[in-house]
# Entry
Amino acid sequence: MMRFLLPAGVFAALALVLFIGVQRAPEKSVIPSALIGQPAPQFELPILGTNDGFNNASLQGQWYLLNVWGTWCPECVNEHQMLLEIARSQVLPMIGLNWKDEDAAAQRWLTQLGDPYDVVAVDRDGRVAIDWGVYGAPETFLINDRGLVEYKHVGAMTLNVWREQFLTRIPRAPPATGGER
Amino acid sequence: MRSRVWPFLLGLCAILAGTLGASTQAWAIDPIEMSDPILQERYRSLTQELRCMQCQNQSIADSPVGLAGDLRREVRELLESGSTDAEIREYMRARYGDFILFRPRFSVQNLWLWLTPVALLLIGVIVAVRIVRQRAAMVANDPSEPGEGAS
# Structure
């Protein structure tokens, strides 16, 4: 009896493990952020096209988005219309983190495609991106009013992601009024 | 016959050695040499145990992509500023999660990862012991089994 039951049991257990693995394969391709629930890393970077600096501590106490992009990033083109729409909805300020890019190319991109950002911070050598655990553009972080990272989406922003993952997390009436739009 | 085999084998070894040499050269993505040979050695081993997050099956030492280069720079600077290996691993883990470590930590979440091989080994030992015992019992119970091997 054992002769039959043991291999059958092992087979069933292995089949179950592999089945779960295959089922979960799509979500496995995205690596969860280590920063969820952690304080958003602080940074001080130049603002694109100006001599001024931007410090994200200035957004303390309000919800905001941090969108990591670059003109070299093909998926960033695909999400741009959605970002413009989000900006139009004025739900919360959107900060752009221009990652390892050329200033001129980034400015041309924003003139041609439209500018959804309240501020674009320039991370030319990619140090701030490392602090945020960025591994591929585009990535969009949601930061809450306590300064903690609430959520991160890897890949192009879509209407579904925005509705299901972001809007559901943001309180209806944001405590602070949005950026200087 | 033998005299013909040896040159062939030697030739094969030469070809293998040649390809090995060529491929180690191809892997030398990172030309940076640190001033201190001890730091250089720590740099080499650390970059080999940190995962390239974009290519995932390569270490940051082996990967030519931009982010891997940035992470190598980070490792180098941390080494130069006097961080320990453990501090550098923790620095990377805090930003990119356990996934960046090729050598996983021993933590509650990772417990199964460490204990499964031990469990499998135990199961194997138990099965082997049972089979050996069963066979021994079979031999002991079988009067026809000859000690002198007449099959």
